[in-house]
Amino acid sequence: MVTPSRITLARKRRGLTLADLSARAGVSLQSLSNYETGRTAPRPSTVRRLADALDFPERFFSGPDIDELPAEGISWRARTKTPPRVLDSARAAGTLAAQLYEWIDERFRLPEPDLPSLGKPDPETAAEMVRTRWGLGTAPAPNMVHLLEAHGVRVFSLPPDSLEVDAFAVWRGTVPFVFLNMLKTVERGRFDAAHELGHLIMHGSGERPCTGPGAERQANDFASAFLMPAASVLGHMPAGARVDQVLEGKRIWKVSAMALTYRMHDLGLLTDWQYRSTCAELSARGYRTDEPQGLKKRETSQILTKVFQGLWSKGIRPGDVADQLGVRAEEVAEMLFGLSMETVTGEEEGAGEHQAKRSLSLVR
Predict the structure, then answer these.
(1) What sequence ranges are listed for the domain HTH cro/C1-type (predicted)?
(2) 29 near 22, Cβ under 8 Å?
(3) How far apart are CA 268 and CA 68, in angstroms?
(4) Do 138 and 231 meet the contact criterion of CB atoms below 8 Å apart?
(5) pLDDT at 316
(6) Are 258 and 241 in contact (CB under 8 A)?
């Protein structure tokens, strides 16, 4: 029995319209529409053609109904500049990652979500409140992926075909998810993680709009304050700092040179003229779109590494997990921050940098 929502999800995951899939699979547009609405069911031979056209295993289409991640709770950056098919594909990839999370959650005891819902405070205050709750004080933030996971956020990587999307976050019921782009610099990846944390904290309750330029500005300000606490920046950086001092200082907080420059201007350490001059010189040196001589070691998931190490010890391989989810192994691999089998079976990446509050344990 084919599940209509799975045809729709697979089509969106591949970034196809009904017309695209009709042409690719050789199935009429009306028939496809009927399949997706459940008015009629495709024959087995048609299911095979759809599976081939969508590059999904046939068994995927006969699984239980799938609820997509809630569209209204996602704050897309540059929504108007990004094609809808790209946003739909990224959301569908997130939905499949949520399926993987549910599979893991049935077998492992994961850290409980520990995110306050702060709809009212300004971003600076909200960042300070979260830092206090998480015991960070004014110290530089550790590995951001590990930190989010330790406080119950489920973090996955976006697949390569969703790289027009910077990152996104969404609440699914009481579970927070963050999806990160893996092709950005390490420093900008950390900022993205903090930015999405800001959305979850400030826009999850519905007290403030979660979309639009205002919401994006609030999330940026939250990320800036969370990664670069005012007291820490004021204590380390001189007023009117030269570009070379900015480049040295950014190593303290593991942020981009542009992010630190913006923060220093925001805190009054750079005048308007100094800010514009510093940005112009950084752009001339290539810091507008890249981070020359930046951090090399990408922040990846601690939880997923532990999960697949635990599964490996039980003789369960990632391909077995993909089979149970009804998807290709490559589909699962794209959610895992590029974790290789060497990483899964070897030493835990980033061990000791930040430990989860609760140990991950196999529950069955």
Answers:
(1) 7-61
(2) yes
(3) 44
(4) yes
(5) 92
(6) no
Domain housing 55: 4-66
Task: Give the SS3 label for residue 166.
Answer: coil
Residue that is written with structure tokens 């010189």 in the block: 281
* CA 170 – CA 72 distance, rounded (Å): 9
Domain at 54, CATH number: 1.10.260.40
- The sheet carrying 167-172 orders its strands as 154-157, 175-180, 167-172
Helix (H) or strand (E) holding 252: helix 243-253
Structure letter (DSSP) for residue 192: H
Using the 3D structure, point to which of 66, 95, 111 is the last residue of a domain: 66
pTM: 0.90
Tell me the C-alpha distance between 352 and 348, whole Å.
Answer: 9
Helix, strand, or coil (residue 156): strand
* HEC string for 288-351: CCCCCCCCCCCCCCHHHHHHHHHHHHCCCCHHHHHHHHCCCHHHHHCCCCCCCHHHHHCCCCCC
Q: How far apart are CA 86 and CA 162, in angstroms?
A: 6
Domain count, the chain: 2
The least confident of 8-22, 73-87, 223-237, 271-285 is 73-87
- Tokens for 213, please give them: 């330029």
H or E stretch covering 258? helix 257-266
SS3 240: coil
Q: Are 79 and 144 in contact (CB under 8 A)?
A: no
Report the C-alpha gap between 226 and 234 in whole angstroms.
14
